[in-house]
Design brief:
PQ-loop_rpt, mainly alpha, transmembrane helix, Glutathione synthetase, 0% strand, membrane, Monooxygenase, transmembrane
C-alpha cells in the first residue's frame, strides 16, 4: 500500500494548521493576563458564527477534515469569546 500525498490535501492541511494555531497565542495571553480588553467582542462573535457555518457546510458536503478543523477553530474562538464575556462581567 502506497501513501500518496495529494497536493490539494496538503494545502488544506496547511490552511487548517494555520487557522487552528492562530487562536492559541491570543487565548494563552488572555488566560495569563486575565485581560481581554483588546479583543473585539463583535469580531469574535462573527468568527464563531463563521466557523459554525463552515463546520455545518463540511458536514453537508461530507468533508470531515473541513468539519474537524473548523470545530477546533470554533472551540478556540469560542473560548476567547467566552473569556472576553466573563472578564468584562467581572470588571463591570
Amino acid at each position: 500500500m502506497t501513501t500518496h500525498l495529494d497536493p490539494v490535501a496538503l494545502i488544506g492541511l496547511g490552511a487548517a494548521l494555520c487557522s487552528m494555531s492562530s487562536f492559541v497565542p491570543q487565548l494563552i495571553k488572555i488566560w495569563r493576563e486575565g485581560d481581554a480588553s483588546a479583543v473585539s467582542l463583535r469580531m469574535f462573535a462573527l468568527t464563531v458564527a463563521g466557523f459554525t457555518l463552515w463546520a455545518v457546510y463540511g458536514v453537508l458536503r461530507g468533508g470531515w477534515p473541513l468539519v474537524l478543523s473548523n470545530l477546533v477553530c470554533l472551540g478556540l474562538s469560542a473560548a476567547i469569546l467566552i473569556s472576553k464575556t466573563i472578564l468584562e462581567r467581572r470588571s463591570a
